[in-house]
Amino acid sequence: MSDRHRAQQRVPLGVERKGFRGHIDAIAAYDAPSGIPPAELERRLLELGFVEGAKIEILHEGLVGRDPIAVRVNHATIALRRREAMAILVS
Questions:
Q1: Which end of the chain is more exposed for a tag (fewer CB within 10 A), N or C?
Q2: Are 90 and 52 in contact (CB under 8 A)?
């Protein structure tokens, strides 16, 4: 798949690698494999600044299983587990 085509496609943030840059398209907590109830996960992500249209970049990945990840959302740096990041759709 070309980089241009992939950039236009929504993918979960949790599958992206260090260095990814893009924008948040949506929060889809109902599809995420998290132990947190979907409504609670969505509320937490929104409170942290994961809102539609926000710029996002993966800054760092943990050593074991690339988890957790450190991301920059607009001007804030936040760490989260990849399973929670699966609820954040980016392009």
A1: N
A2: no
